[in-house]
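ok trying again, last paste got cut off:
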Amino acid sequence: MFKTPLLAAVLAALIPQAAMADGAHEGDGEASRWGLGLAVMPETKAYRDFDNKTEVWPIVTFENRWVRVFGPGLEVKLGRTGPLSYGLTVGYARDGYKAGDSPFLAGMDKRQASAWVGGRLGLQTDWASFSADWSGDASSHSKGQKLRLGVQRRFSLGDFAVTPRLTATWLDGKYVNYYYGVKADEVRADRAAYTPGSTINSELALRLDYRLTPQQLLFADLGVTSLGSAIKRSPLVDRSTLPEVRLGWLYRF
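nice, full thing came through this time. structure:
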């Protein structure tokens, strides 16, 4: 179902750089660019018997030399030194659950989604784009930290483009324990206490985009995330990988 415009803006761009498909440095000039569209995204989580949903989201994108809406969040650009760019980031992650999301989660305390604040470094080379993103839980629900390292390369084929990417995300022990741990008062016969440490998730993905017109873009983002060992061992989890599918349309003004 459709969400509020505020959430649409915060979660803008289920298109991790699909809005930047014209080039790695689009938006660095004086002109501003923005777009509107729709995206379809199944919500799949690692929890046992999780009630998966497919949702339709309105998309709002925006970029100029000072700021960039990216998925999902906002980057304030601090500058560029040659091929190196850096900025401050604010984002929102739909992590967590409530007990009603799965029969197996009955009796568990709700785990809240959080806002995240951090910084980003980007490196553009002739053959690939590299990024490093660090963020901390600004909502203080998990009090956790994340560090995400990524590399991708875009191949243009006329109106088509293909962008494979590889990322690794380190999640600290506070984050993993909050979302995948089991406290003493949450234990039951089929759910043992669990206090995990830090872990690393890895993702392999492919983004496809097709330019219908100079303003209109269709995109598909397909991938799979391999969950870190501390998450896979959680009694709340019954899978080792998560599929990722995002499909959408964008009109850029």
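cool. The chain is about 5% helix and 50% strand. Residues 23 and 154 are 9 Å apart (CA to CA).
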